[in-house]
UniProtKB/TrEMBL annotation:
GO cellular component annotations of the record: axon; neuronal cell body; plasma membrane
Residue ranges occupied by any Fibronectin type-III domain in the UniProt entry: 135-240
Domain Ig-like, first and last residues per copy: 35-129
GO MF assignments: axon guidance receptor activity
CDD domains per the UniProt record, alphabetical: FN3 (cd00063), Ig (cd00096)
GO terms (BP aspect): homophilic cell adhesion via plasma membrane adhesion molecules; synapse organization
Keywords attached to this entry: Immunoglobulin domain
Entry protein name: Neural cell adhesion molecule 2
Length: 278
C-alpha cells in the first residue's frame, strides 16, 4: 500500500575471530500510484468582480502529476480548452498542486471548470464550480498592542466576523525610514493569518529586525479573496539589550533580594537588643 513507502535501512554484519565488519545502506521505497484527490478537497471556488481569484487543484500522486484545465461550456460532455489563455489567466504550478489565477473582469468568467491530473499510472479529474461572491469589508479595527524587539502584537477585528464570512487576515509590511518612498506594489513582505476560532483577535507579526521602523497595512480575507487595505500605520521595534546590560540588571536584582533577606534576619536581633537594655 502507499503507507509502505519511505526510507528503510539494510544492515549487514561479517565477523571473524580477528575482525568484525558492518555495513549500513539506506533504501528509499517509492510506491507509485495514479493521482487522487483528497476527500475534503474543494468543489467550489469563489471570486468577485474586479478582483483576482485562485481556483486550485491538488492531488496525491507518485510520480508527481501533470495538470490540464478545461472550461466546461454548453451541455454535458462539452469542454473548451485552453484555460491557460482564458481571460488573461495565469497558471501557478507546484508539485502535485496547480492553481489557475483568474482576473474577474465580468460575469462570464464564473462557471464550471474541470481539473485533470495525470501521470504514468493513470488519470483523474474533478469538477470545480467557480461562483460569484462579494469582497470582504476592510477591517474595522487595527490596533498596536505591544511592540518588542522582534515582533508586534496587533488587535485585528472586522464587522464581518459575526457573519463568519472572514477566514483570515493579511498583514503587508515594509521597512521604512523617514524620507523613504513607499512602494507597496513591490514589497516582498506579507504574512497571512487564519482567523482565530476561539474569539481572540490578537495576531503576532514576528521575525522582525531589531530597532527598525516598519509601515504596515491590513486586509481581510474571505473565500473569495482579499478586501481593500486599511490605512498605513508605522511602528519601530525596540533595541535589543546588550549582554552587559542584562547582566547588570540581574546583579542589581540579586542584590536587592539579598538585602531584603538580610533585613528579615537582622530585625529580630534589634528587638532582642532593645529588650536586654531594658
Amino acid at each position: 500500500s502507499r503507507s509502505d513507502g519511505g526510507t528503510y535501512q539494510c544492515k549487514a554484519f561479517q565477523s571473524s575471530k580477528t575482525l568484525t565488519d558492518r555495513k549500513v545502506k539506506q533504501i528509499h521505497l517509492r510506491v507509485t500510484h495514479k493521482p487522487t484527490f483528497a476527500e475534503d478537497g474543494p468543489e467550489f471556488a469563489y471570486g468577485f468582480l474586479n478582483g483576482t481569484a485562485n481556483v486550485t487543484c491538488e492531488v496525491s500522486a507518485e510520480p508527481p502529476a501533470e495538470f490540464r484545465w478545461f472550461r466546461l461550456v454548453g451541455g454535458k460532455g462539452k469542454r473548451h480548452f485552453h484555460i491557460r489563455e482564458y481571460h488573461g489567466s495565469v497558471i501557478i504550478n507546484e508539485t502535485n498542486r496547480n492553481t489557475i489565477q483568474i482576473p474577474v473582469t465580468h460575469d462570464e468568467v464564473f462557471g464550471s471548470f474541470l481539473c485533470e491530473a495525470s501521470n504514468k499510472e493513470g488519470r483523474t479529474e474533478k469538477k470545480i464550480i467557480f461562483k460569484k461572491s462579494v469582497a470582504p469589508q476592510v477591517p474595522t479595527l487595527v490596533a498596536m498592542i505591544e511592540v518588542a524587539d522582534t515582533y508586534i502584537d496587533l488587535d485585528i477585528q472586522s464587522s464581518d466576523d459575526k457573519q463568519e464570512s472572514i477566514v483570515g487576515y493579511r498583514v503587508e509590511f515594509v521597512e521604512k525610514w523617514p524620507g523613504d518612498p513607499m512602494k507597496w506594489a513591490s514589497t516582498p513582505y506579507n504574512k497571512d493569518f487564519k482567523k482565530h476560532k476561539n474569539g481572540e483577535s490578537i495576531y503576532r507579526l514576528d521575525a522582525l529586525a531589531v530597532d527598525t521602523k516598519y509601515t504596515f497595512r491590513v486586509a481581510a480575507r474571505n473565500l473569495a479573496g482579499l478586501s481593500e487595505y486599511t490605512r498605513e500605520q508605522s511602528f519601530q521595534t525596540t533595541a535589543l539589550r546588550s549582554s552587559s546590560s542584562r547582566a547588570l540588571i540581574c546583579r542589581l536584582t540579586l542584590s536587592l533580594v539579598l538585602l531584603q533577606y538580610l533585613r528579615t534576619l537582622t530585625r529580630p536581633c534589634w528587638h532582642l537588643a532593645l529588650f536586654e537594655d531594658i
